[in-house]
Amino acid sequence: MQPSLQIPQYVFRVNANSEEKLVHPNHMVYQKMESLVNHMLDAETGVPIKTVKSFLSKVPSVFTGQDLIAWIMKSLDMSDLSDALHLAHLIASHGYLFQIDDHVLTVKNDGTFYRFQTPYFWPSNCWEPENTDYAVYLCKRTMQNKAHLELEDFEAENLAKLQKMFSRKWEFVFMQAEAQYKVDKKRDRLERQILDSQERAFWDVHRPVPGCVNTTEVRAV
């Protein structure tokens, strides 16, 4: 699912080359992060991305935490491991990369697999997804008969709250979820696997696990 692109009140507009452009208050931070992530994505000099094959399955487009940290330390000439980990955590917490089987957006310096987020979901696009978008996403997840897509406890609780909140329009939510589910089913299996994980990571940023920091919040000055 691609959530509807809303324009938050804290987003302002600039006129660049006679074209109006939306700008987030954190745009300078995002620019620096995205410049670094684009270097990470370079096919020749970036973080080594691979498809991991096992006896019965393939895990496409992943890299390890070790490879990421090693790349950061070498490319940015860092000697302190803790500094490299801190930078990796910062990039992950803003949703530019994520662990493929965990909702917590952190990075470990080990063999854990990570995946880069699609630029479509980068925070510089000024995402402000609504609760209806989240409800459709969670509802769609309940239709997918896959163990790795089962709702976590906090997601099931959120879904129950949203069902009460949108009780009068739940049929519409369900129909939206069902339509998206049917579209997803037609995708190639590996493509669907990547898109499912990227969508999940998007919501982990905008509706984080209880106790985790919401990096999308903008504090009033």
TrEMBL record:
Lineage, highest ranks first: Eukaryota, Metazoa, Ecdysozoa, Nematoda, Chromadorea
SUPFAM superfamilies given in the database record: Winged helix' DNA-binding domain
Transmembrane segments: none
Sequence ranges assigned to domain DEP in this UniProt record: 43-118
Pfam families to which the protein is assigned, alphabetical: DEP, RGS_DHEX
Keyword Coiled coil: no
A GO MF term: GTPase activator activity
Biological source species: Heligmosomoides polygyrus
Cleaved signal peptide residues: none
Identification of the protein by name: DEP domain-containing protein
Single biological process term from Gene Ontology: negative regulation of signal transduction
Keywords: Signal transduction inhibitor
One cellular component (GO) term of this entry: cytoplasm
Entry keyword 4Fe-4S: no
